[in-house]
Write a structure and sequence with these properties.
- The chain has 162 residues and is mainly alpha-helical.
- The chain has three helices and no strands.
- It is elongated, with a radius of gyration of 51 Å.
């Protein structure tokens, strides 16, 4: 058995040592019917002693269970405290790792944005159009293409009429 679990010790009374009193003549007669069998008084007395012993044993069980229950409850409370403390420490460590990772991700994102801005600035100074400039130019070319197609259709319609 390990020392980490609760221990149960029953400390309430001890079973009393019974002295063997010498039977008197009248008690001997009440105890025996003459055939070596106990008499009704002896049987009743034995039943009372047995019932009393059972009652005391039951009370002893109740007391022992109550004491053990208190010890177990106290051990469970301590175990719960320990578990909560460990759980809180793990949760806080995880939160610190997440914050660190988030801070690192924010730093990388900020650095990336700075690099992109610097590259775009250099490209602009060199006369290279930006992504937005190219997109705007593409839209204008598409609009001009649509106008040319419309003009070509109108010319074809005008040539096909006599």
């Amino acid at each position: 058995m390990s020392d980490s679990g609760p221990t149960i010790t029953i400390t309430r009374g001890k079973r009393p040592e019974q002295a063997n009193p010498k039977p008197s003549a009248s008690s001997a007669r009440s105890r025996s019917l003459g055939w070596g069998l106990p008499g009704p008084g002896a049987v009743a007395s034995g039943l009372v002693r047995g019932a009393r012993a059972a009652w005391w044993a039951g009370l002893g069980v109740v007391g022992a269970v109550q004491d053990a229950g208190t010890q177990v409850f106290d051990a469970l409370v301590e175990e719960g405290r320990s578990w909560e403390r460990a759980r809180r420490e793990r949760t806080e460590a995880t939160a610190r790792r997440v914050r660190r990772a988030t801070d690192e991700a924010d730093a990388i994102r900020a650095s990336d944005e700075r690099v992109q801005a610097d590259v775009n600035d250099i490209l602009r100074r060199m006369g290279v159009p930006s992504r937005d400039d190219v997109a705007e130019l593409r839209e204008r070319v598409d609009a001009l293409g649509a106008r040319i197609e419309a003009l070509a259709r109108s010319i074809e319609e005008a040539d096909s009429q006599p």
